[in-house]
Design goal:
Layout: H1 3-6, H2 17-47, H3 51-76, H4 81-104, H5 110-138, H6 144-194, H7 209-221, H8 226-239, H9 247-254, H10 259-282, H11 289-309, H12 313-341, H13 347-358, H14 360-375, H15 377-398, H16 401-404
Helix pairs in contact: 2-3, 2-5, 2-6, 3-5, 3-13, 3-14, 4-5, 4-6, 5-13, 6-10, 6-12, 8-11, 8-14, 8-15, 9-10, 10-12, 11-12, 11-15, 14-15
Main location: membrane
Subcellular location: Cell membrane
GO molecular function, one term: transmembrane transporter activity
Length: 405
């Protein structure tokens, strides 16, 4: 069959009203979330000028994913997913408005930054499993794969435009004004979600929460592919992904950029991610995606190493673009393989394990903060990224099933 014969335009899925509302709201949410990386980063640098605190703030924001990820996944199968999504947006609005007011009044302190980061982290933990588990209820089965591609694309779109909006906002209206813009974007996302008609689930979950969680973990442990995929994801999340929280520090301290140019630099990551998703959406299914998952994870670590050690803006931008392309390739193929190889009865709980995996980032961010005080921010990011690439490669070498699938 020809390429055109196999191609299905993923944008066709936006014909479905409720999915379109969810998708548009998610674009706003992820864009605001990536704005926060720039806005919060410059606020921390203004308050204490510390790369270590910048890494720790990022760790605190991600910590609820580690603590609540699995529970949020179980709740998404038991209570109204719409209410969980609205609760998530409410936490985001409150957290951003609070820090905006404190900054406007000159009362903001570092502990306020940490406290609001925790609140926003709780919102992130509630959002992911509720949104992912709602997808099959919003589109017919024939469009589910396209919905998954578009769902992944929202993060890449947010990576591409969020830092630009954040950098421009900080440059034009200051940190407090940028937080107000973020709060408004979260609020509009909430209003769109309220309009969704989410069908009631058929039947009620049986058994205790603990038994449901244990059964899901047991299924994952004995699966041929899932443990290897999870270990690769943990390796990159723990050791490579913490670089996100210190990009403003690298931009300012190593490259000498202002807020606007720092936002544009970080947008290169999102641009690479977006290109990767477009290519994957426009081509037939990747043969043997397991191999691509391993190689893209290793390449992601190498690209971030180049970025961290660069003192040239062009090299740094190209490295971030390549990192975004490789990261999105890895994430999209992993999600597709997990969904296709997981029994329907376990998809919610298995998906929530990947949400918990995102909570590994605060552990890595804490280690990065400590290492930064010894080596400086660039060498610290490079050392951890090399370790992440080696870890992903080792898992790929040991789990031979990944090379057959």
């Amino acid at each position: 069959m020809s390429l055109l014969g196999e191609f299905r335009n993923p944008l066709r899925t936006l014909r479905h009203r409720d999915f379109r509302l969810l998708w548009t709201g998610e674009v706003l949410r992820t864009s605001a979330q990536w704005m926060d990386t720039i806005t919060r980063g410059f606020l921390v640098l203004e308050l204490v000028n510390s790369s270590a605190h910048l890494a720790l703030v990022n760790a605190v924001r991600s910590a609820p994913l580690l603590v609540l990820g699995l529970l949020a996944g179980i709740l998404a199968d038991r209570v109204s997913r719409l209410r969980l999504l609205l609760a998530s947006q409410t936490m985001n609005v409150v957290g951003n408005l609070a820090i905006a007011v404190l900054t406007f009044t000159g009362l903001v302190s570092l502990w306020h930054v940490y406290l609001t980061a925790v609140l926003i982290g709780f919102g992130m933990a509630l959002n992911a499993p509720a949104r992912q588990s709602a997808l099959p209820s919003l589109v017919p089965e024939r469009d589910l794969q396209s919905a998954v591609v578009l769902n992944t694309a929202t993060l890449n779109i947010g990576q591409a435009i969020g830092p630009i909006i954040g950098g421009v906002s900080v440059g034009l209206v200051g940190v407090a004004g940028s937080y107000l813009v973020q709060a408004a974007m979260f609020a509009v996302a909430g209003l769109l979600i309220r309009r969704i008609n989410l069908p009631a689930r058929k039947g009620k979950p049986q058994g205790r929460l603990r038994d449901s969680a244990v059964d899901g973990i047991r299924y994952l442990r004995h699966h041929e592919l899932l443990p290897g995929l999870l270990l690769i994801s943990v390796s990159t999340m723990l050791l490579v992904q913490p670089f996100r929280g210190v990009v403003p520090a690298i931009a300012v301290l190593r490259l000498g950029l202002d807020a606007t140019r720092a936002g544009l630099l970080m947008a290169a990551l999102g641009a690479g991610s977006l290109l990767s998703v477009i290519v994957l959406a426009a081509r037939p299914p990747v043969p043997r995606p397991g191999r691509r998952i391993v190689t893209s994870a290793v390449g992601f670590g190498v690209a971030i190493t180049v970025f961290a050690l660069s003192t040239d803006l062009v090299v740094a931008g190209v490295a971030l673009f390549a990192a975004g392309l490789l990261q999105a390739n890895n994430r999209t193929l992993t999600q597709s393989l997990v969904l296709s190889d997981t029994e329907d009865a376990y998809r919610g709980r298995v998906s929530s394990v990947w949400v918990v995996n995102r909570g590994a980032m605060p552990v890595g961010s804490t280690a990065l903060a400590a290492l930064t005080t010894v080596t400086g921010v660039g060498p610290a990011v490079a050392a951890m990224s090399v370790a992440g690439a080696i870890g992903a490669g080792y898992v790929g070498w040991r789990v031979r099933a990944l090379w057959r699938r």
